[in-house]
Amino acid sequence: STPGDDFLTPLGQYLGSIGVSINQDVMGSKQLLADIITESHRKELVEAFFRELFQDALTQDGGKKKTRKIFQRRKKERKEVLGTELTKHEFADAMGLKESSLFVEQVFHLVDKDKSGSISFKEYLQFVALFTN
After folding, report:
1. 52 within 8 A of 82, measured Cβ to Cβ
2. Structure confidence by residue, pLDDT tens digits, 77-116
3. Cα dihedral across residues 17, 23, 29, 34: positive or negative
4. 1 secondary structure, DSSP code
5. Which end of the chain has less Cβ packing within 10 Å, N or C?
6. How far apart are CA 120 and CA 49, in angstroms?
7. In whole angstroms, what is the distance from residue 51 CA to residue 58 CA?
8. Which of the two residues, 75 and 86, has the higher pLDDT score?
9. Calpha distance 47→43 (Å, rounded)
10. Contact at 8 Å (CB) between 94 and 103?
11. Rounded Cα gap, residues 65 and 10, in angstroms
């Protein structure tokens, strides 16, 4: 018996009765804690996202080559920053605007080229580079 069986067993039975199956993945508390991104860590990632983005965009090469600072970052941290994708809420918050503002709606729509619902570092860098060249 594992924690949560009192909830998961009846839930699984109910979902099975309507033809829906669930997959349960059990992970230890150490792994769970290691995978958690705290709100403060996410804020740091968003700040680093914009810092690196504008540093890249404002270099003479239009952001095509990575700046020295990015290469000096530890590999894991660099990968985490460059792999960060912003939600519309995070984008609006970083701009100091409401998520429902026309500016946020329009720019987010333009930048999110793959229509994933988030803005990748590459998508935003390409957008900023258009205006800085």
Report:
1. yes
2. 777 878 889 999 999 988 889 999 999 999 999 999 999 9
3. negative
4. -
5. N
6. 9
7. 11
8. 86
9. 6
10. no
11. 55
Q: Retrieve residue 71's tokens.
A: 């290469």
DSSP string covering 25-75: ----HHHHHHH---HHHHHHHHHHHHHHHHHHHTSTTTTSS--HHHHHS-H
- 36-63 tens-digit pLDDT: 777 788 888 888 888 777 776 666 554 4
Report residue 102 as tokens. 């026309």
H or E element: which one contains 87?
strand 85-87
Integer Cα distance of 27 and 123 in angstroms: 34
CA distances from 98 to 73, 88, 91 (A): 32, 10, 10
d(CA 79, CA 69): 13
Give φ, ψ of 67 to 5 degrees. -75, 160
Residue 79, beta-bridge partner list = none
**119: phi then psi, degrees, rounded to nearest 5:** -110, 120
